[in-house]
Amino acid sequence: MWTQIVGKIRLELTPLINHWWNVPLYVTARGLTTSPMPYGREAFEVRFDFIDHKLIVERCDGMRRVLALEPKTVAEFYEELMSTLRDMGIEVSIYAKPVEVPDPIPFADDRLYTAYDADAVYRCWRILLSCDSVFKKFRARFVGKSSPVHFFWGSFDLAVTRFSGRRAPERPGADAITREAYSHEVISAGWWPGGASIDGPAFYSYTAPEPAGLAGQKVRPESAFYHAELKEFLMMYDDVRLAANPEQTLLDFLESTYEAGAALANWPRAELEVARPAA
Fold first, then answer.
1. How far apart are CA 249 and CA 243, in angstroms?
2. Whole-number Å distance between alpha carbons of 51 and 31
């Protein structure tokens, strides 16, 4: 919920970028950041520091405020951050209710839990940091349109998305968010800490629109599988973590699931992929 609050500040203050790329946060050497956000003639940035467990707000004129990341309710965090921004001369109004979660509670009213597990936060960020470097290597193998490697705070996943360059048919019943996100053909991959549909953290890959026959494609490594409910290829995080070469194992998953989707969807791969030297 804390990342949603910070992310919604970025959403409110930055211009819409195709596929909602103005929404995510980015992995840093110490945590997560909004990157600089414009405010009038100035700019400011909000950063999560998961080493010292601080939330840092910095203006481009040198003004700086630091909030402790420690056990507190969502309501307390929300009030503390918004009050800090006002004290810094930054007035911003956000949609103050979480998204992409069941039974959302407005931030100002969410006093259900008072918790902050610093060790768990640190370990989660270290996973994001490791994934970020491999995803960037995967992204570098593509010369077509590709997203940055970014952290979506609504679905709570780190993702990178490749595009064929062609528009996609509109999804029946799509809302405004989905309509914009999937306006073009994509193959998206990422890491997710898990939820009701998956028992544990996992890497995923999906092709949208999904071409016929994708579910039956053989991908690498052997531990990867197709999840019929999610319509995604999955590989459990522990299968990567315990592999003899975790980076190559993850790259194999990313490349093979991309190749399966791109081939079946007839992407113009010769125009999109970096030419690799002959073996």
1. 7
2. 7
Q: What tens digit of pLDDT does each residue of 121-148 get? A: 999 999 999 999 999 999 999 999 999 9
Provide DSSP, 86-147.
HHTT-------S--SSSS---GGG--S-----HHHHHHHHHHHHHHHHHHHHHHTTB-S-BP
d(CA 149, CA 209): 21
Question: What is the separation, in whole angstroms, between the first and last Cα of the chain?
Answer: 48
In terms of C-beta density within 10 A (0-12 exposed, 13-18 middle, 19 or more buried), how is residue 17 classed?
exposed
CA atoms within 13 A on the CB side of 260: 27
Judged by DSSP in three states, 215 sits in: helix
DSSP per residue over 36-59, as a string?
Answer: -EEETTEEEEEEEETTTTEEEEEE
- Rounded CA-CA distance 56/153 in Å is 18
Confidence check: pLDDT of 151 > 90: yes
Distance CA 208, CA 187 (A): 6
Region for 66 from its dihedrals, namely left if φ exceeds 0, alpha if ψ lies in -120 to 50, beta otherwise = beta
Percentage of the chain beyond pLDDT 90 is 93
Q: Is there a contact between 56 and 47 (Cβ–Cβ < 8 Å)? A: yes
Residues 210-225: tens digit of each pLDDT: 999 999 999 999 999 9
Report how far residue 143's alpha carbon sits from residue 11's, in angstroms, rounded to the nearest whole number.
28
Peptide bond into 193 cis (omega under 30): no
Q: What is the mean pLDDT of residues 174-183?
A: 90
Q: Of the candidates 222, 212, 201, 228, which has an alpha carbon nearest to the alpha carbon of residue 260?
A: 212
**Global confidence as pTM:** 0.95
pLDDT digits (tens, 9 = 90+) for 37-67: 999 999 999 999 999 999 999 999 999 999 9
Q: 175: exposed, middle or buried (C-beta count within 10 Å: 0-12, 13-18, 19+)?
A: exposed
